[in-house]
Design goal:
Oligomer: single chain
Largest sheet: 9 strands, antiparallel
Shape: globular
Structural class: alpha+beta
Radius of gyration: 24 Å
């Protein structure tokens, strides 16, 4: 019984979050787990003989809670947003849906587009799944077995983690919006290409900077091979368009420039990871989603070429790393994570700028549009 007779409002944000859990020496990502027992007012309010455990669970769009099992019955009520279930049941979940999980059955979640989900996790036992952090009621047997197998070849950790980042990037909000018709209107498409030009320009600068500051012979050969195949693609993209409006946006500019700047400070092998495992891998998904919207555009040559050649640029990096003696894996994993995170920011800002433009667009007479001179557009954050 509660020891207070006062009505209390408890904000969800006031319940502490648990982000990861360690099971058998392996750390696993949970997203957000907010166990009700971690808030003193809720502990005081809930009856001491309560047999129901409750926790808020949260995954951002594209975030994944890997397949796992529990030794007790579990019920997940999806309250906000959407999710994809993985494990024994592969399906979509929307607000109001309930997933019932018997003991020992595989299940997991991926946050849906565009905003992920909030759900309520219920267990009909005396303690929550992650109430005791040193003894969580969860088993990630597949991940743990994979981790054991990877200990003999550290490079496979790098490659397997890249698979995770690629899967998450494939579900990026920008691509979800494009697949829902964001670029159907010519004005939106033009705005998208104006913003994409910023990233294309900085990609080219990154490739040049890599050649200039690469030191070792084999790395220099790889850097030059990559530059020769990428040389001038940003100019081809620009020259294929007769009408374009240069865009300066502080967030897009700084996040895209990060790649040019950081490449100059990295070791040669870190450069390979950033350029081939991150940027070129991301390009395979970018062009996969964007190319269909560009089939009738003057820029379709640019998108066709990248759709054909980016996979080879990815392979260049993977093949090089497999033959290269990698000592300390930690800096490679660090630049891998940072690179994918920064790419997410670049793409998210392009999505925001196109969406905001579409919402504020005011149709002008065709004649007036034709007479309007090219201008530099300054966009605030």
């Amino acid at each position: 019984m509660s020891t207070t007779n006062q009505v209390q409002l408890i904000n969800r944000d006031d319940i502490p979050s648990m982000r990861t859990v360690v099971v058998n020496g392996v750390e696993h990502w949970l997203g957000h787990v907010k166990d009700f027992t971690k808030h003193s007012a809720l502990v005081d309010f809930l009856p001491k003989d309560n047999r129901i455990s409750m926790a808020w669970v949260r995954l951002e769009a594209g975030e994944q809670l890997d397949e796992h099992t529990h030794p007790v019955d579990s019920m997940i009520l999806l309250c906000e947003g959407s999710a994809e279930t993985i494990g024994d049941v592969k399906s979509s979940m929307n607000a109001g849906d309930i997933l019932v999980v018997p003991p020992g059955r595989d299940h997991g979640f991926i946050g849906g587009q565009p905003n992920g989900f909030w759900g309520l996790s219920l267990q009909f036992d005396s303690r929550g799944l992650y109430e005791e952090i040193t003894d969580p009621w969860a088993s990630f047997e597949k991940r743990e077995a994979d981790a054991m197998a990877l200990r003999d070849d550290p490079k496979e950790i790098l490659f397997q983690r890249n698979e995770y980042y690629m899967e998450r990037f494939d579900k990026h909000r920008l691509f979800a919006l494009i697949n829902k018709g964001l670029l159907n209107k010519p004005a939106n498409k033009a705005r998208f290409l104006d913003c994409f030009q910023v990233w294309s320009n900085y990609f080219q600068k990154m490739v040049f900077a890599r050649v200039l500051c690469t030191r070792e012979g084999a790395h220099e050969d790889l850097a030059w091979d990559h530059l020769i195949e990428e040389l001038g693609h940003n100019r081809d993209l620009s020259e294929a368009r007769t009408k374009k409006t240069p865009v300066f946006d502080p967030i897009l500019e700084s996040s895209a420039a990060w790649f040019q700047n950081i490449i100059q400070t990295l070791s040669d092998i870190e450069k390979v990871v950033l350029v081939h495992l991150v940027v070129e891998c991301s390009a395979t998904f970018f062009y996969k989603h964007v190319k269909p919207a560009m089939q009738t555009e003057s820029t379709n040559k640019h998108f066709d070429e990248h759709s054909m050649h980016d996979h080879e640029h990815v392979k260049m990096g993977y093949d090089f790393i497999r033959e290269y003696p990698v000592g300390d894996l930690a800096p490679l994993l660090e630049i891998q994570e940072k690179g994918w995170s920064m790419l997410g920011v670049v793409m998210a800002r392009i999505a925001d700028l196109v969406v905001h433009f579409a919402a504020a667009e005011v149709e002008e007479p065709v004649a007036q549009q034709a007479e309007e001179p090219e201008k530099m557009e300054l966009v605030g954050a």
